[in-house]
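Deliverable D4.2, example record:
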Amino acid sequence: MDQRMSLITLGVEDLARARRFYAEGLGWQVGMAVENEVVFFQLNGMILSLYSRADLAKDAGVPDAGSGFAGVSLAHNVGSEAEVDAVLDEAQRAGGRIVKPAAKAEWGGYSGYFADPDGHLWEVAHNPYFPIDDQGNTWLA
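Output generated by the structure prediction step:
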């Protein structure tokens, strides 16, 4: 298997609400959508998909049970501490919930967390050891 990730799908309770959060609230551009079924956002080198949580569980053949911590977070790296604060503010204004306010991190960076309306955790971080290129790709230094 190649060392690659192509698409991340978030299972959501309310597709219209999730679409509004990402598209209108955060200003992301919808790349493709099937009305009332799925929404795709083209990211830098990969795709984020929003899909019904129940349908996603059914597709995977697993029960749609539990609402606790799923052991997964997504990350959005930025170029400065000020950008971390700005993105967290934007997420909160869009309807996200700040889970952990931004602070200096023990690993030498600066980060905080927000949860989207379905509780998916996003870390917003400035990591001085992971450079970001002009296309927004984050690299291991």
